[in-house]
# Entry
Amino acid sequence: MKKLSYIVLLCLANLLSFAQTNTLTLREDNIDEVINAMTNEEKVTLLVGARGALVPGAAGYTCEIERLGIPMTVLADGPAGLRIQPKREGTDETFYCTGFPTSTLLASSWDPDLMETVTTAMGNEVLEYGVDVLLAPGMNLHRNPLCGRNFEYYSEDPLLSGKMAAAYIRGIQKNGVGTSVKHFATNNQEINRLENDSRVSNRALRELYLKNFEIAVKEGKPWTVMSSYNKLNGDYTQQSKGLLTTVLRDEWGFDGIVMTDWGVKDNTVKSAKAGNDLMEWGNPVEYDRILAAVNSGEISQEELDRNVRNMLNYIVKTPHFRHYNYSNKPDLKAHAAVARKAAEESIILLKNQDRLLPLEDGCYKKVALYGVASVDFVGIGTGSGEVNTTHIANMQEAMTEAGFTLDEDLAEYYRQYVSQQQTIDKMEQSNRWKYRNIREEIAVSAKAIALQAKEDDVAIIVIGRNAGEGTDRTLKDDFELSATERELLQNVSTAFHALCKPVIVVLNIGGVIETTSWKHLADAIVLPWSPGQEGAYAVVDILTGKVNPSGKLPMTFTVNYMDIPSSKNFPYSWDMTKGRKGDRKNVDYTDYAEGIWVGYRYFLTNREVSYPFGYGLSYTTFDYSKPKVKADKDGFTATITVTNTGKMAGREVVELYVAAPDGGLEKPARELKAFAKTKLLAPGESETLTMKVSAYEMASFNEEHPAWETAEGNYQVLFGASSVDIRATASFRIGKAQSWPVKMIW
Ligand code: BGC
# Structure
């Protein structure tokens, strides 16, 4: 009897556990249990991207495992907005997204709060269109101005880049959707991006190329990181355990998933072992390789489970896991207003001779608007960073809407040319990667310009440059103006100036161009970069003074291209036929021989520039007073009072640079360590800004030991309106050197 009841009990228990296994579905609190219930085949499916159709135009998916309640999740591009297909078969409904300003323009705001507002709106579109992760922010440093993707990135400086990226992440993730910080790391050129080996010193890596990612990961806490295509010091980044596990997870505390950039590499097993959890966009060969390695023991059960656990921890956070009922109807109108405001707060005024701008009311009614980009305005860029918007406003529309009268013949001339070009593009365009890197300018005869100068009150020339992934920009006809552009500038300047009428240049560009040789021809230069779908309106708001410009340069505008140290090691005149595979300098490998001497770190003490890092004009003036620094055991707190001493309300960015004491490692003359932006200050109004810097943030990297080190001695704190325009200083002393040792990786 006893024996019988024991057997009954045992059966009951088995039945119960069978029922449990069968009803086991993923919850936030049962991840280990789910892992135990998974077969190795199921585990491996989770590590390889899937094909899906949930959101047409999304870049990728993760696998569903129905029996365990593990949903498919959706990954789609940014960074200037969500990139999905705007139209779908079988419905008249549309799925357009907002084209926000590009990253370079947002960085020019030097305003993390503004960034967070922008990406809070952007993240709402991600959520409402049924996407779980936005594949953004892109945040590789602007090592060289010709990198084709610089418009998707922020700055030459790691602090500005890191802080803006952290704000980007916070805004998106507030919506309960994720981000993917990319491309980790040293994807600083597009030419041969799949294979190029970035050869970088430990110091430059730590202080520059990893520093911005470190800040973004620690302060933004992204759900995911995307490893880059390229190699770093010999290993593909997706296969570098040092990068993905030792640095990213062990040192920086990252607890999300790492996914590859889109494609397949040999040695998937090495990627999985290195801590690259997810292979995107997913290929059956990757599944086979991982499973075979699990079966042979090359990938241990522990390693497999670690990656699967990361995946499940990610999945339980997603809207698809929560069964979020997305509307497909984000408020595009409200988001357009956010995009316009963001552009207004970020546009940079480079030149304003004799206070031409803002244009005096009523004096400049009739406008001669030149440049192909005045119609074919570059809102964003091409490649995966493109956004399918309902429209991109152009300068003709924006000027007309603001009440200006355009020289109609001239306007029509450009409209017709652009429409013809668009037809040619449509006929030729075989894939979305095609891009015209330059808005190929057309000539306007000197005779026509002379007549326009008589008729019109002011000339505005829009110079356009497009850019996109997969290729870098060129030196000739892109970084440098084309012959037609030069001629146009010269002729317009001569004709209009002869009649004492002003010339304004609008730089609608995705990356830095040469300005020294022609800037004297313009009375005012406005730099909106690629400012998104509403950017043209924002430019006009700046011209009319509806908005007072407050953007500042997130990088240096040099005099010549070859002044830039990295130009010696950048494929600016790439010729694929040169050299054998594996041997081509700057194509198969790129030496970052300039080390830490990137951007202003180099130019401050070495060469004249056209416009320095951190530079930007306002229609008002600001006074800096009462600089104070209070040191504490973890660094210092600085305060500075900014007063609007001009006649127009405006905002000012204060840049805090630190000059370290002599001795120890050789350092740049000063480095940006904090920044802050005032609210809109009315004339006469003041605001005291507070900035905190920790001792760790002041440290330099000693590659001998290796460790971060803050030297003992007197430090100078410089409050700048740009990297060269220092308005106030203070100092403090670090009594005892500090050191933060790390593991040697490269
Ligand atoms: C790009 C990534 C992008 C991915 C998915 C790749 O070619 O490098 O930035 O997220 O495609 O579209």
In short: The radius of gyration is 27 Å. The CA atoms of residues 213 and 437 lie 28 Å apart. Residues 59, 77, 135, 182, 261-262, 384, 469 surround beta-D-glucopyranose (CB under 6 Å).
